[in-house]
């Protein structure tokens, strides 16, 4: 596959960081279009033509634009089945896999953001995640059932969750309980995390190291 068949619009300090890790885990060729979010390039007309939301990540695969972090994960893992990072349609784990992919975007992220911003709790009948405590307890219970979110099989869902939990616990937005810490350590031990970090190093602003 030629590198220009997959283009990732990317900055290491954005949600596209996890997509780069997934691409490394898939072992496919891709090209990076660096979007300097500190300089506001996500609002440049050239990028808004790709994603009018002005948000990363954005992916172009064989000319088709895919945005939204979870959608990109599902798309890429399905597009390259040889890597075995997604249960196929018909696999009994396909439903649970999609459940936890959707749970990340529909429940985890909104709950963490609302809590971090100290927003008043929503009525459970209108909240997409119920309440923070129920959300995190549901996640912890699932992670306590095995090494990975689907048990003993690492999938793209783990790269999504491992990246998100590493970031949110690192900034103190989510408590790094023993269950979460052990899960993060298992997932981020995958070689793709180290490869992506090495590739991202030249893109990290110098001020990040000062």
UniProtKB/TrEMBL annotation:
Residues 3-84 form the GST N-terminal domain. Gene3D superfamilies: 1.20.1050.10, Glutaredoxin (3.40.30.10). It holds the Pfam family GST_C_2. InterPro entries: Glutathione-S-Trfase_C_sf, Glutathione_S-Trfase, Glutathione_S-Trfase_N, Thioredoxin-like_sf. PANTHER family: GLUTATHIONE S-TRANSFERASE FAMILY PROTEIN (PTHR44051:SF21), GLUTATHIONE S-TRANSFERASE-RELATED (PTHR44051). This is Glutathione S-transferase family protein.
